[in-house]
Each structure stands twice: as C-alpha cells, then as structure tokens.
Predict the 3D structure of the following.
Amino acid sequence: MTTLYRFITGLALTLVAAVAAADYVDTTHAFREQPASEPDTLVVLVPLNSTDGLPEWGEATREHFSRALAAQDFDGSMTQQLEILAPVGLPVDRLIAVGLGEAAELARADAEIMGASLANYLNLGKAGSVQVQSALIPDPRLNTAIVSAIAHGVDLVNYRFDRFKTEAEPRPTQSYEWLVADQEQAGRAWDQLNALAQGVFTARELTNLSASDGNPAAFAEYVRQRLQPLGVKVTILGPQQVLKAGMGALYGVSKGSQHGAHLLIAHWRGSDDPPVALVGKGITFDSGGYNLKTDAASILAMTGDKAGAAAVAGTLEALARQKAAFNVVGIMPLAQNAISGTAQLPGDVVTAGNGMTIEIVNTDAEGRLVLADGIWYAREHFQPQVIADIATLTGSKVRALGRDYAAVFSEEEELIETLKTAGELTRERVWQLPLGPYEKIIDSTIADMKNSGQPGAQAGAVFLQRFAGDTPWIHIDMAGNGRYEDTSQPPLIGATGYGVRLLTEWVKLYAE
Ligand code: BES
Ligand code: MN
Ligand code: ZN
C-alpha cells in the first residue's frame, strides 16, 4: 500500500517537474534549382555592383529593377536591404533586394546577420511564401555557403520563448523557397546548420526557463528527452548518488535547496578516440547563498546561471544531429544555490571528489565548486584527451570584457588558438586572460584551497586548474554572454545560446 502510494506520488512529482520539449520555430525551408512555388514575396540576393537584375527577366523588368535600386543608392553593399515596387510582369506582391557586398569575402556570421534582418523585416509585414533568388552568385560552392548561412540566420532570429504566455503572439510561419545553384549541396549545408540551430534553441530554452521550472531534476529530464532519441547516452545521477560518489563540492552547493544536486552526463560516441569532455556550470538559480546577492537586478539575472550547462547540452545535441565523427562527453553539474537552515555556511570546509578540501570563504563563488567535481568526474570516468569547461563564472569577467567576448584561460597555446578561430567564425568571440602568476591567490590557511580570491576571474580559473591537473584544459568564463536584455536588438532578448556554436565548431577544429 505505502509502496503503491509512493509510486503514485513519485509519478505525480515527476509529471509536475517535467518541462516538455516542443518545436522551436515554425518557418520552413526548401532548396531548389527550379521554382515550385508561387511566392507572394521575391527576394533577390545582390552582390556588390551587380544591380542589373536576374538574367531570366525581360529587358523592361531589368531596367525597372536597376533604376529603382540606383534611385535609392543601392549598390549591393553589405547590409543594404531595399523593398521596391514590383515591376509589372513579375507575378509577386513584393520585391526586396538584399546587398551581399563582395560575395567571395562574405563571412558566415555576416550572412547570418543578413538572414536575421531579412526575417525581422518580413515578420513585420504579411509575407507568407518567400522565394529567394541567388542566381547572381553563380559559383556553386560560394552559392551554397552564402544561402545556407542566410537561411540559418532566418532560423536563429525566429526563435521565440513563449511557453509561459497564455496567448503568445503568432510566430513567424513563412515558407522559404531558396533558388540555388546546387540544391543537394545547399540542402545538406542547411541540414548541418539546422542541427546547430536546434542545439542553440535547446540552450536558449534551458537558460530561459524560470529557476523553479528549470530546477536540476527538470533540467536533466529535459536534456534526456531531447538527446536520448538522437543516440546520445544520457545518465543522470541524483543527490544521493552525488553524495555517495564523494562529490562534496557539488553536493554542498545544493544543501540549502529542496532541489538536490544532480550530475547529468550526455555521451555522443561518434568515434573510438578518447573523448573531448565539455563541462558546463548548471546553477539553476544563484541566490548567492548566505553571501546573498542583495541587488534586485543581479539576483534576477541568476535564472541564467545555468547557461554553461545549457551550452554543453546544446553542443551535444548539435553534434549528434550532425552525426559528427567525434567522441564527445558533456558533463553538467546541476545545483540550486539557495538559503535555508540546511544551507552551506561561510567558513565551511567541503571535500571534493578528488579528495581535496575547500574552505568556502564565499558561498556566492559556487560555480567553481560544482565545476570542480564535474571536471574530476570527467577525468575519473572518461580519461578525456582534453577538457573545456564553460561557465557564467565571475562578475569580474563581465567588468573586464562585457558581452562582446568570453574570457578564456589555458596553458595550451593550441587550445587558445583553435578556440579563437571558432570564435571568429561563429562570432562568439573569446579573449585570453592569464593564469599565471595567480596560482597562489586561492591558497587557504586551514584547507587545501579556498574558493575565492582576487582578481576574481583569475581566482575562478586557477581554482579549476587544480582539478584539471595534467589533462589539457581550457576554461571559458561566459558571464554576461548568456543573456541579452537590449531591446534594440530584437533577435536576442533573453538567452542567447552562447557557446553552442563556439563549442560545436571548436570540437571539429580540435578533434579533426
Ligand atoms: N554567477 C555568478 C557570476 C555572474 C555575475 C554571472 C554576473 C553573470 C553575471 C557567480 O556565481 C558569482 O556570484 N560570482 C561572484 C563571486 C564572488 C562573490 C567571489 C562574482 O564574481 O562576483
Ligand atoms: Mn554566485
Ligand atoms: Zn553563479
């Protein structure tokens, strides 16, 4: 009887805790060499100084097009976008020209931004079916790269976080038909980028979830739902298993919360090489603990303190959807840094999984504590060839670099270089800060180390370095990069999904 009762209430709790994954965007794409749709809107991609119109148009239509562009000083420069009156004879309601600049020099990230601003513009009007003409980029490889990146930009900007709205604003629902030089190549390129976009959306969704809905168990369950069907092996350790495994640093952070610590492990075994390990900070809410955050805006933003773990989950999703030929394991220590009579206290000493003792001089320096055990677990159970950790770790990093760069720390030049390259490609940029001569700023008088010191970003980094030991390791402090509040940039209100694109490209550069 009691067992049955427990089973039923357990089931009910699981149901309440679950946050269902749903489709993230409602737009569709088709890549064709020959048109199959009758669009209401025609978009022409125009390289610099190629303003004569499409070869298949009649003389009068071409004349109308080039005169209308010239009248508005449109020469095909990058970021130019112009709607003109559709000439008589073209069976469309609207005609839009998008400038590419020098097509051969167009960066992927700029093409994505073009797609994003095109979509933002179309979303204001009543476009339903959109045909995009790329015939003015004849080279097939260039054509594929540019068109697929623009389509990717459309998708990235059309994500909406609307699960908490009873009456959500209608989402963009356009169908896009891309007329391309090689439909198979373009379709395949977009499939890869769509895999990436799905990973970005998962990271955004997880980061955006309210702290209570996105508690450690719910976060882990959401990731299981998304990743397991893709062939990713998902393992979830609950609070008792975390404690039994000796991960006292992770466990300690969660002691004040009814939502106990979890360790989430997602393993994509795309090859038999030793794995690349990605460890992400998953603080589902950071109150600061007894070193309470007292500023209203700061504490509110700490719903997003799970963005590192979200980036790792999204990266695993992207790589699995791409069927990438790499062995990658994501380790996500999840905990809520709360206050109660059972919470960890300033001055407490905890023992991490590797046996090291840590003096908790500040309960608000909790991210490095959960990461320490995550890094230890990765080494102990997976013997990775390299570890990258990613975390919204320090306010000090935000003051140093703001939102335009994440800070990276490593002794290995190759890790820094490959990460910088991935950062430039995806425009999720990184800037190196030094580890030395800061090694001793976290020495403790009573334990093996303390969890905080000055300068703040370096203290976090050298703390984690001690747990990485002799495994090649890079630390990414993405504090400030995970959420965007600037409403003048409509694509990026709320979670950005920072790190998914960076890490997915980096894994390829590094493991290949
Ligand atoms: N999650 C915060 C860091 C943070 C700050 C992320 C702002 C995003 C935006 C982290 O846990 C924290 O509280 N760090 C403190 C540590 C300090 C009190 C030792 C910091 O850096 O201020
Ligand atoms: Mn904190
Ligand atoms: Zn934190």
Observations:
- The domain at 209-511 is CATH 3.40.630.10 (Aminopeptidase).
- Residues 484 and 494 are 5 Å apart (CA to CA).
- The pocket of manganese (II) ion (ligand 2) is lined by residues 286, 288, 364, 366 (CB under 6 Å).
